[in-house]
Specification:
150 residues; five-stranded mixed sheet; 23% strand
């Protein structure tokens, strides 16, 4: 069990990976059929999340790996790849923006993560860059005597 510098606070590491398809007039049913799975989120251009929100600018079909956030990013990407691999040609042929959103959250500012090479196949096949949104809780900044500059 690892504890961060914060008194008694256990370190946590959370990962997520989501296939995102955005465009105009997306064929939602066809995407679901080709991937063999229902999306975890969809929305249509012009609709609103809630009455006061701005309308969505485009259609979206998202599929988030249904793994526990504690599972390594490699596992999330492998799960998505098993759905995407048979449909690569279909996905790259869509008139849409296709990407994979990867997220990493932790309260430990002195750690990192690795992704196994086979889990990166999805990025090569879809010809998209691998990127990760990294969020580290503020405990590190609170413990520094002076702010750091980059």
């Amino acid at each position: 069990m690892n504890f961060s510098a914060s008194e008694g606070e256990q370190d946590y590491f959370a990962y997520t990976a989501t296939l995102r398809i955005h465009g105009q007039s997306l064929p939602f049913d066809q995407i679901s059929s080709k991937l063999g799975v229902l999306p975890t989120h969809t929305h249509q251009a012009g609709k609103r999340r809630r009455p006061a929100a701005r309308p969505y600018p485009d259609d979206a079909w998202h599929l988030t790996a249904p793994l526990a956030e504690e599972a390594e990013l490699t596992e999330h990407l492998r799960w998505l790849w098993t759905r995407v691999e048979p449909a690569v040609e279909f996905l790259t042929g869509l008139d849409a923006k296709v990407d994979v959103f990867c997220g990493y959250r932790s309260n430990n500012g002195a750690s990192g993560f690795a992704v196994e090479p086979d889990a990166l196949q999805i990025f090569n096949a879809l010809k998209i860059p691998f990127g990760v949104s990294v969020i580290v809780d503020s405990w590190l900044g609170e413990r520094l005597s002076e702010p750091t500059e980059h």
